[in-house]
Amino acid sequence: TWMRLATAERHSMMAAEEKERDRTNQVVIPPTKRQLLLYALSVGIPFIGFGMMDNAIMILAGEYIDITLGATFGLSLLASAALGNLISDVAGVGFGEVIERLCGNIGLPHHHLTATQHTSREVKWAALLGGVI
Question: Dihedral (C-alpha) 43, 49, 51, 56: value to the nearest 10 degrees?
Answer without folding.
Answer: -170
